[in-house]
DNA sequence: GCGCGGATGACAGCTTGATGACAGCTTTGC
DNA sequence: GCAAAGCTGTCATCAAGCTGTCATCCGCGC
């Protein structure tokens, strides 16, 4: 984890750097806004510690610029001011946290850990198969890059087939997956219907639903 | 955005709930650890505000349990203690932030905005999308440059849709985000109502709320 | 060729969503 | 405190389009 410390008071910056270094962070120090910009442009950081009082301007401008540019690196602001307005202002301008000087180094360390912690693993429900791009959580379907709309039943069927890709699914099992008890009297023909409708929408995706007579259906790569 | 407030002092909890409600958050209050667990098991929250001193135990246990269980919901800890050890301890146990009592309600609000914003992958409160310009902290909305007034619920809905832009949000999820438990008996038709009202206000913004029958709604660029 | 399982187009019913009007309640301004 | 304004949510009505049935056609395997 690499951290950028934007702070012009050498003592503070070096103390922080040493302390964070011991905690496993690699730190770069930037004593001016210009240095900070140069560093941030060259490499990415897991987080930025930003003093607001700098010799060549206010850290707020730096923060605002980065956010406007779409940069989401977590920023922890250091401030000498106590007023609630200032704190609220900093947070609303895009800071993720702040610390009032003088601060305890252990606390800086803990806060940076909290900020950088949530970088890791987001559960992805997305499946990409040849020209097919299906995201179960967003219920979105793309075929060859183009968004395709599908109804609830169609998506449910697709979901089932994808989850069992490469395996033959009997109509009974598909039926069980698509309909609850209250729909038990729906004709089995319905499955065939939805397979047909899905096939039409998956046209040209490189993925095909094969028919296996007397056995069921299987989704797999085309060809 | 739905928030769980775990706090046994009724005054504090209700003041926070009222203040956050005005800011567009839907709040549930849990006065005990048992209540908190029950709530958290039943529904998901955008963030949890957690007092450490509770009648049936320490909030730390609750926090630790949730993290062990793999839950990453942002947690903001309320504490009466000043010691650095306590603060560091809370952060390292998985809290994302803390506030020392007594705290300013505006600050709680700003910190929760920062926490939920980060979760939604945003670095600042302001979002500009085509002709739509929305600022969550100022609760202000502009369409094609012109200021548009919108009510709290409308803004809350918009905020939710923007945070999940591009994905289909089921009415249930939108409902959970807009209403807490005390409003559980509100008809689901209400969502449709607010979608209609929002659509009217977003007219000509280049952003549209698409209906996906049986699935939910999705906010995306028009076209 | 025949039989059976599967494919598919059309359609009617019905669930789901849209929307205008209204009553209750909250907030705001005085 | 009071009154007015505005926000909220319910209801009823209307529109849309998803669903599943039916009938018919296709094609594989025997």
Automatic annotation (TrEMBL), chains A, B:
Record-annotated Response regulatory domain positions: 2-116
DNA-binding region, residue intervals: 124-221
Membrane-crossing segments per the record: none
Biological processes annotated in GO: regulation of DNA-templated transcription
Domain annotation OmpR/PhoB-type: ranges: 124-221
Record-level GO cellular component terms: cytosol; protein-DNA complex
Record GO terms (molecular function): phosphorelay response regulator activity; transcription cis-regulatory region binding
Annotated source species: Limimaricola cinnabarinus LL-001
InterPro entries for this protein: CheY-like_superfamily, OmpR/PhoB-type_DNA-bd, Sig_transdc_resp-reg_receiver, WalR-like, WH-like_DNA-bd_sf
Protein name as annotated: Tricarboxylate transport transcriptional regulator TctD
